[in-house]
Amino acid sequence: MTPKIKFHDLAKMSAEARGRLLQRTETDLTEFEQKVRPIIDAVRTEGDHALARFAQQFDKSPVKASHIAATPDDFARAEKTLDGGTRKAMEFAAGSIRKFHQEQMPEEMWLHEVRPGAFAGDRSSPIPSVACYVPRGKGAFPSVALMLSIPAKVAGVRDVAIITPPGPDGHIDDATLVAARMAGVEHVYKAGGAQGIAAVAYGTQTIPRFSKVVGPGSPWVAAAKRLVSHVLDVGSPAGPSEVIIFADDTVDGRLAALDLLIESEHGPDSSAYIVTWSKRVAEEALKAIAEYWSKMSEKRAGFSQAVLGGAVGGVVLARDEDDALAFCNDYAPEHLEVLAKEPFQYLGRLKHAGEILLGEYSPTTLGNYVIGPNHVLPTSGWAKTASAVSVFDFLKRTSIAYVTSRGYPELAKNARALAIYEGFDGHANAVSELRDQILKR
Questions:
Q1: Which residue of 163, 172, 195, 235 pairs with 214 in a disulfide if CB–CB is 3.0 to 4.6 A?
Q2: What is the DSSP string of 310-326?
Q3: Catalytic residue set
Q4: How far is the C-alpha of 199 from the C-alpha of 58, rounded, in Å?
C-alpha cells in the first residue's frame, strides 16, 4: 500500500492550522536539553573517557579513550581505500567551494574619511580556532566537511579541526578523512552528538577547547549548542534539513515531485513542501511521488515517506501567487527552489531563505554539492535573521578610527555635549580644555 502524502489546501485552513505547517521538529528543544545536560556534565568532568563511553552507547562504536583522534594510519587507510570516482567528484566540489569563498573574502582593511580629518573603517581578521561538526547518524557526509573546513581555511583560521561520530567499526568515515586533507585540515576527532559539542566547548585530554563550532546536526546537537553557548560561539542554527519547492503554473508537477524528495530523504525529522497555486501542478506532483519512491532505497524512501506523510511535509496548495509567496516568506526555509520558466520574476518578492535556487536546471542536489555556495544553512525559520555559512563566520571585524588635529575640535565639541547630558564626567573631561593643555593646543 502506497503511503499517503499530506495535501494542505491553504484556502480551507484556519490561521492556527496554517501556523502548524510552519513548525519544525526542533521548535521546542526543552526535552532534548534535559537529556543533553548530563552528557555535557560527564564530558566536562571525565573528558575522553566520557567520549568513548558515549560512542559505545549512542554510536554503537568500539571507541577507546586512548584513540579519540584520527592517526596518520587512519588518513593513509582512507586515502588508499576511497574509490577514484568519489575522490574525483570531491575534488571537483572542493574546487567550486574554494573558488566561491575566495571571491567572497572582503578586503583586509578599509579606512574612509567620514568627516574632515576623521577616519574610520574596519579590519577583518580570522578567528583563532574553529571545530567543524560533520554529522553521520543517517549517512556519511564528506560534503559537509568540505563546506565547513574550506571557507575556514580560506578565511585564514589557524586551528581548524573536524569532529564527527565514529562508525560501527570504530573508525572515521574514509571520505571525511580525505575531505579533511583536501581542505588542509590535520585534526579529526571521533566525537559526535551532544558529547562532541561539549568536548570542543570545554576540552578533553585529547581535544582542545575551540573558539567556535559550526555545522548541522540533530536536535541533540542543537540542544547541546544552546547549553554551551555561554562558553562557545555556536554559530548560526543548522538543524534537520528542510526545503520548499515553489512551483508556478508554467512547470511540470513531476519535476516538483522529483526535487521534493531531495531533502525529504535526509531523515524523518526533515521538513519538505511543494508550494504552488496550480491544482494541475499539485495533482501531477502527488501522482508522481510514489513512482520516484520506487526508484530509491528502502531506507531513503522510508525517510521521505515519513516526512511527506507527516505533520511537516507534503503538497501545499495556495490561493494564488501572493498567498504562495507569503507562505514561503513566513516559513523562511533552509533551501528554496523556484521552479518556473521565468524564475527571476519572483526573486525580489522572496525575502527569507537560506539559499534560493532558480530555475529548472538548479535542483538542490547541485547546491548541496558542486555549485560553490555553502550548503550549511540556517533552519527552523532562522533564515529571517541568519545567513549561510561563509567566510564571514570565520572572520571578525575590528573597528579602526584615526582623528587628526584638524578633525578633533568639531568631534570633541559634540562628543563633550553628549557626555555631559549622559552624566559621564570622565568622558567629558577627556575632550575638554584639559586635553588641549596637555597637547599644548
A1: 235
A2: STTEEEEE-SSHHHHHH
A3: 334-335
A4: 16
